[in-house]
Specification:
five-stranded mixed beta sheet, 2 domains, alpha+beta, 2 helices
């Protein structure tokens, strides 16, 4: 009888220990599975494209998965008429900016969002005075919201008229500050810092995106020359003076 009770106790202990081991193993397996891949969400960026490890991303909220702790090479390529300003990426640990391009980044969290910020090399001239209908696409950015609301793929608003001015409002999120609006049309791009922005629609198709940076960021908006600004006129005048001086010297030497 005593032997039977002892065997039952041993059997119960084995069963309990096995159950605990199974629970521990299953918990570890679930934990490992949850951490095998990390997700990168690329925002659409006016003015250029983003590539990771040589593969260009489609943007527009595209989610791409990578193995946990992967080393990524982020490359920003500016479109014609634009130049790279900085990277902005955000995760549960907070937002960060970097001016490195390419940028070496190691994924250490389950999900990050990233975008490249660009600025035009020259602000475009606006001269349209027609009154036909226009479409405005508003894009999302990391760090805030806009009115009208933006989206990853730029929701198209069709209630605009060329030659009329409209108000666009930006609202920074917690820990962010507004940097600039980027407006692109078929004739070129312009940067604005007004908030709210009163924008005169000059093209039948316009894209607009507001950009924010963390309040702790040292990124600033560079000087962008307008096609007919005083700075541009000064440059043109300097070039004309140099050409005239070169022509004068050439003729003097030719006579001699």
């Amino acid at each position: 009888m005593l032997k039977t009770k002892r065997n039952l106790k041993i059997f119960a202990m084995i069963l309990l220990t096995s159950s605990l081991l199974l629970l521990a193993i299953n918990a570890n397996v679930a934990s490992v599975k949850a951490q095998t891949t990390d997700t990168v969400i690329a925002y659409t960026t006016l003015g250029g494209t983003i590539a990771i490890n040589g593969t260009t991303l489609a943007g527009g909220g595209t989610s791409t998965t990578y193995a946990a702790n992967s080393d990524l090479t982020l490359t920003a390529t500016a479109s014609s008429g634009f130049k790279f300003l900085c990277w902005e990426y955000a995760s549960v640990s907070g937002p960060t900016t970097s001016t490195s391009n390419p940028l070496q980044y190691t994924i250490s969290v389950s999900e990050i969002a990233l975008m490249a910020m660009f600025t035009p090399t020259t602000n475009a001239t606006q001269s349209s005075t027609s009154t036909s209908a226009a479409t405005v696409d508003v894009f999302n950015s990391i760090g805030g919201t806009t009115t009208p609301a933006g989206g990853f793929t730029g929701p198209a608003y069709t209630t605009y008229t060329i030659g009329t001015s409209y108000s666009f409002t930006q609202t920074p999120g917690t820990g962010f500050q507004f940097l600039y609006w980027l407006v692109q049309t078929s004739s070129g791009a312009n940067v604005y810092t007004a908030s709210p922005l009163s924008l005169k629609i000059t093209s039948s198709s316009t894209a607009i995106q507001a950009f924010w940076v963390p309040t702790s960021s040292t990124i600033t908006l560079p000087t962008i020359v307008s096609e007919f600004s005083s700075a541009m006129l000064a440059v043109l005048l300097s070039v004309l003076v140099l050409i005239a001086a070169g022509t004068y010297v050439y003729h003097r030497r030719a006579k001699n």
